[in-house]
Amino acid sequence: MELDELDCLLLREIQRDGRQTNRELAATAGVAPSTSLERLRSLQRRGILKGFTAEVDLEALGRPVQALISVRIRPPSRKVLEGFRAWVRTRPEVVGIFVTTGSDDFLIHMAVPDTDYLYDFVIDELTERREVADVRTSIVYERLESRILLPLAPRNTDRERQPGGDGRAAGPREDDWT
C-alpha cells in the first residue's frame, strides 16, 4: 500500500494527537483543509486508519497492576481454541489478547487492582478451565510509550550487496580485536 509524504505526515500527527481538528492538521501539513480531509478519508477507505480511540490511564482507573499471561491449551483443536477465546473476551480484566505460535497458544494482557486479584484470577478461574494445560504469568514493571506507526522502508534483499556475497554478514576480522 503506497503512502506518500503527506499521508505519512497526517498519520504521524493524528497518532500524536487524535483530538486535533482537521483545520489544525491541514495547517501542520501545509495543505488546504479539504485536502487534509480527503486524505484522511482515503486512509480510512484503504483500511490504514481504522478509527479514533481514547487512551485510558489504567492506574487512574484503579487497575495499576498489569500482567502478561501465556496460556497453553489442550487439546489444540479449533473448537477448544475458539471456546477459550470467546471466554477470555468476556473478561473485564483483559486489555488485549494475542493468539500466538510456539509453545503457547495465547498471550493475555491484563490490568487489575492488585496482585491478590491477579493471583485469584489465575488460580481460581484460569487454571480451573479444563482446556488450560499451562499458564505462565509475568508482571509488567513498566509500559514504555507507544511509538507512532508508519510504513517501514523496504529491506535490502540484494544478496550480492551483502558482505561475503552469500547474504550472511561478515564476521569480525582479526584486526578488529586489537
UniProtKB/TrEMBL annotation:
Ranges where the record places region Disordered: 154-178
Location of the HTH asnC-type domain: 3-64
Coiled-coil region list: none
Signal peptide residues on this chain, from the entry's feature table: none
GO cellular component, one term: cytosol
Any one GO biological process: response to amino acid
SUPFAM superfamilies: Dimeric alpha+beta barrel, Winged helix' DNA-binding domain
Domain of life: Bacteria
GO MF, one example: sequence-specific DNA binding
The entry's keywords: DNA-binding, Transcription, Transcription regulation
Organism: Streptomyces cadmiisoli
Name of this chain's protein: Lrp/AsnC family transcriptional regulator
